[in-house]
Specification:
The complex is a heterodimer of chains A (413) and B (251). The longest helix of chain A has 17 residues. Chain A has 17 helices and 14 strands. Chain A is 42% helix and 14% strand. Chain A has a five-stranded parallel β-sheet, with helices on both faces. Chain A has a five-stranded parallel β-sheet with strand order 12-11-10-13-14, sandwiched between helices. In chain A, strands 2-1-3-4 form a four-stranded parallel β-sheet, sandwiched between helices. Chain B has 251 residues and is of the alpha/beta class. Chain B has one domain: Rossmann fold, CATH 3.40.50.300. An eight-stranded mixed β-sheet of chain B has the order 3-4-2-5-1-6-7-8, sandwiched between helices. In chain B, a hairpin with a 5-residue loop joins strand 3 and strand 4. In chain B, helix 1 crosses helix 11. The interface between A and B is medium-sized, with 13 and 16 residues. The structure holds adenosine-5'-triphosphate and magnesium ion. Adenosine-5'-triphosphate binds next to helix 1 and helix 9 of chain B.
């Protein structure tokens, strides 16, 4: 029962990641399910859904369809939808039932394409992994299909890994775009929010890729191989760290060497002048309660890392751990970071004595037994959906400092 | 790397024919992999000295999914890499889904990257009863399909059904149907009957394998004919089949 969630909802799954990436394109997207998964995506994982015209359908899979594997019925429905909508592309998105009966959605999509001439994709998503995997696979499939290598345009960047599950309606992304513009850089494509097919095609011309989430990192690594575009993985949160971020971006432009913009073990251990293997700040000794980290940031790894670095640079907080909710990406982690695979592990970590401050989605607060600890909410759509959308913190650049200062003042009162 | 799926009615001689093919090609210095896609898990036994090897699904179950390639892939005669997908206990579970799981596990463990085979054979259970048994001919798996048949009615009927299934998947970029292999049962007018079915389904008989007692004799020693009686007339027949298959798949 270690993986049972008693208090938390299930986090956004892979099929929602796929659908979110396709949302901006002129796509007929059909989830192959009995409608629960489609409802989960449109109702809870997609803030842009209400009021939009994006054609996301449910195949209406029923028992007899599962037994008979009647793909023709699905194909016919897609052909009908295509006639009405005239889409640029079509996609079939898997869910648990197609996984169990072994539907070959990639094969069905190939047939659909052969019959309609419209580029079609099948994603064998299962609902058993998280949104980031689905989103990354989809961006890569789209690139593979639509994006040929291009000559580099100096000063151009892509933003990679932008999904509502990580960025809600995208306020932090808009702030990031503004910062890029202020520095004379221009955006080729923001994958995958506020973009179109033309931008997707142009994305191969970018000088540097900015991976802003784990989704983004997965895509960036592959784009480096395919198109030779180096990447910078991170986010500019906080005044000082943002300056460093843009310096790092300049460096990537010059050197063409990819870089993960993150605190290093040394950043923390300089503070106590000890080796990275076990400084007094607790790095490398996370289990020793006297020296273990004092602050825990739980959530998406790239964003949590950016908060950590900003806290370190602007507020001198040198003892911070990150807890990953969607799997720990080793290249993004410091030794004290934790892979919080289940509600039980999340609860255990939040309640460790060494932490005095927790920064996490407000939903996680129910797991906290000791209300002596400070808790700063920073909502993530993949966790709390629209129920806490007003608590998605604006953190890009100096907004971070405002956010923190406000909280520090509150504590003093 | 060429991937080839062998289909055919139950008991018609798929495993015998495939194992002899594998052995013949391995003896020529090619790296061969044979994957049994049948819950019975006896596809590769004559390449393994009569030993039934542990199956992918058994190992997943027993090792709580901590499976490594060495737990499921075994080198037999001539360095042929032998794998058995396996399946649930008869009467429960889902054998078709089992094939998919086994295939995904091989992919996850990077089996093809590690062994770098020149040729992979999938020896697939008789009738394509559900999606799982079509897995070996889906995009990314087999490039070519051969169907083993005799001149018996039921075998020809099964062959025609399988050929239909492959045809139905034509638009999906699945494997190409490359012909019939006649494994003779010495029924009356056998060659002509098989020939006719081939013509009707727009394909060809790539080779007629005679029925021969050496097959059983080799089997009793846990071997293929190619291994046990390399100089025999029957071994020559299997070698000739190997030539035809190689030509057909463009190697
Ligand atoms: N050419 C042949 N001459 C003589 N005996 C043969 C020949 N081919 C196959 N056999 C015999 O037929 C029997 C069945 O063969 P085999 O196990 O290869 O069939 P199969 O199609 O793999 O069966 P299943 O569907 O059960 O997997 C074996 O005992 C084998 O020895
Ligand atoms: Mg067999």
């Amino acid at each position: 029962m270690a993986v049972l969630s008693l208090f938390l909802p299930p986090f956004s799954p892979d099929y929602s990641g796929v659908s979110a990436v396709l949302f901006d394109l002129k796509t007929v997207t059909a989830m192959h399910d009995a409608s629960g998964c489609t409802g989960n995506y449109t109702g809870y994982d997609e803030p842009r859904w209400y009021g939009s015209k994006s054609p996301v359908y449910c195949s209406g899979l029923r028992e007899i369809d599962a037994v008979l594997g009647d793909d023709e019925k699905l194909i016919q429905k897609m052909i009908d939808a295509a006639r009405d909508i005239q889409p640029d592309l079509m996609a079939l998105v898997g869910s648990p039932v197609p996984m169990v009966i072994g539907s070959d959605l990639a094969g069905v999509a190939a047939e659909l394409e052969a019959r309609t001439g419209i580029p079609s994709f099948g994603f064998d998503t299962t609902g058993t992994t998280y949104y980031d995997k689905g989103a990354a696979a989809t961006i890569l499939a789209l690139l593979e299909r639509f994006t040929e290598p291009l000559a580099t345009m100096p000063g151009s960047v892509n933003i990679l890994g932008a999904t509502p599950m990580d960025f809600g309606k995208g306020e932090n992304l808009r702030d990031l775009k503004k910062l890029l513009q202020d520095r004379g850089l221009f955006l080729t494509a923001c994958l995958a929010m506020d973009y179109n097919l033309a931008a997707l095609r142009q994305s191969a011309a970018a000088e540097v890729n900015l991976a802003v989430s784990r989704t983004g990192l997965l895509v960036a690594a592959e784009m480096e191989k395919r198109y030779g575009i180096p990447y910078l993985c991170g986010l500019p949160y906080g005044e000082k760290a943002s300056e460093e971020y843009f310096a790092a971006l300049e460096e990537v432009r010059q050197s063409r060497q990819s870089r993960i913009f993150n605190a290093s073990s040394r950043d923390f251990c300089d503070c106590c002048k000890l080796s990275a293997a076990g400084g007094a700040c607790g790095v490398g000794r996370a289990n020793d309660s006297r020296t273990a980290p004092e602050i825990l940031i739980v959530g998406e790894q790239v964003q949590a890392n950016a908060i950590r670095l900003a806290l370190q640079r602007d507020y001198g907080e040198s003892s911070v751990a990150v807890g990953c909710l969607f799997g720990l990406e080793p290249g993004l982690a410091l030794p004290q970071d934790k892979d919080l695979k289940s509600e039980q592990l999340i609860g255990q970590e939040l309640n460790r004595d060494n932490y005095r401050l927790i920064i996490a989605d407000p939903f996680l607060k129910v797991l906290l037994q000791n209300n002596q600890k400070e808790f700063w909410p920073n909502a993530q759509y993949a966790v709390s959906s629209k129920l806490a959308a007003d608590q998605i913190a604006r953190l890009t650049g100096s907004h971070f400092n405002r956010w923190v200062n406000l909280r520090i003042e509150k504590t003093k009162v | 790397m060429k991937k080839i799926a062998i289909y055919g009615k139950g008991g018609i001689g798929k495993s015998t024919t495939t194992s002899n093919l594998s052995a013949a090609l391995a003896a020529r210095g090619l790296k061969v992999m044979q994957i049994g896609c049948d819950p019975k898990a006896d596809s590769t036994k004559n390449l393994m000295q009569g030993r039934i090897i542990p199956t992918v699904l058994d190992q997943i179950r027993q090792r709580d999914n901590q499976v490594e390639l060495d737990h499921i892939a075994f080198e037999g005669f001539g360095g042929v890499v032998c794998v058995e997908a396996g399946g649930p206990t008869p009467g429960i579970g889902c054998a078709g889904r089992g094939i998919i799981t086994a295939f995904q596990k091989l992919e996850e463990l990077k089996a093809y990257e590690r062994y770098q085979p020149d040729i992979v054979f999938y020896d697939v259970l008789g009738d394509v009863v559900c999606g799982g048994f079509a897995m070996p001919i889906r995009g990314g798996y087999a490039d070519n399909v051969f169907i083993v048949t005799s001149g018996e009615m039921m075998a020809l009927y099964a062959a025609t059904n399988i050929a239909h299934a492959i045809e139905n998947f034509g638009k999906r970029g699945y494997a190409k149907y490359s012909g019939l292999i006649q494994n003779s049962r010495n029924v009356e007018n056998e060659d002509a009957l098989v020939q006719q079915v081939a013509r009707e389904s727009g394909t060809q008989v790539i080779k007629i394998i005679p029925r021969h007692k050496l097959v059983q004799q080799a089997e009793n020693q846990g071997m293929t004919v190619v291994e046990a009686f390399p100089g025999s007339e029957m071994a020559r027949e299997y070698n000739c089949l190997a030539d035809k298959v190689m030509k057909e798949v463009g190697l």
